[in-house]
Design a protein that fits this description.
This protein has helices at residues 26-37, 56-63, 76-88, 102-107, 127-136; strands spanning 46-50, 68-73, 95-99, 113-118, 140-150, 162-168, 171-177. The protein is of the alpha/beta class. The protein has one domain (26-177): Vaccinia Virus protein VP39 (Rossmann fold), CATH 3.40.50.150. The longest helix is centred in the middle third of the chain and has 13 residues, at 76-88.
Length: 183
């Protein structure tokens, strides 16, 4: 995988060889970041990357100007690889890795985030609850965006805070906000 644009454009993001990852496709990632770039800047934002895996989404946000990314993944090998990648990209002072479950992390987050990315396994058992936990808590800044990747087994298009939902192959990208997408 490569970073699409920004100060780290073209740099590779290694994928941990754990057999437990489904990296975001280039098509979905380009579409997702295109939607965001048309409406919002990443400059000086804070990002939470849940189910971080390789760190693909968080590193793309850093490349585009985010000041800090918190990567959460329950697999220690994923967090170790993210931290190694951060050092290789010379952004380790902007990266904070947390080895824990998403459910545990969301019980008591220590800050608000401008962007929250979540790319859980398609068969993730707690999808609806996770969405509601994020949107009902203060983890998402009032002007923040929560971006969820999921498959067609879940449909959030009727959710009151869903502002965008579109399929890119098997992956659906859904964006939630506390207010209208174009405000």
């Amino acid at each position: 995988m490569r970073i699409i644009t920004g100060k780290l454009k073209g740099r590779n993001i290694p994928i941990p060889n754990t057999g437990k990852l489904r990296p975001t496709s280039d098509r979905a990632k380009e579409a997702l970041f295109g939607i965001i770039a048309a409406r919002r800047y990443f400059d000086s934002t804070t990002v939470l990357d849940l189910f971080a895996g390789s760190g693909n989404l968080g590193f793309e946000a850093l490349s585009r100007g985010s000041k800090q990314v918190v990567f959460v993944d329950q697999e220690p090998e994923h967090i170790k690889q993210i931290e190694k990648t951060a050092a290789d990209l010379d952004v380790e002072n902007q990266v904070y890795g947390v080895t824990t479950s998403v459910e545990h992390y969301l019980e008591n987050p220590d800050r608000q985030f401008d962007f929250i990315f979540a790319d859980p396994p398609y068969d993730y058992f707690n999808m609806e609850n996770m969405v509601n936990t994020i949107l009902d808590s203060e983890v998402l800044h009032p002007d923040g965006w929560f971006v969820l990747e999921h498959d067609k087994g879940h449909d959030f298009s009727a959710h009151e805070k869903c502002t965008h939902s579109r399929a890119y192959g098997r992956t659906i990208v859904t964006i939630f906000k506390h207010s209208d997408l174009d405000d």
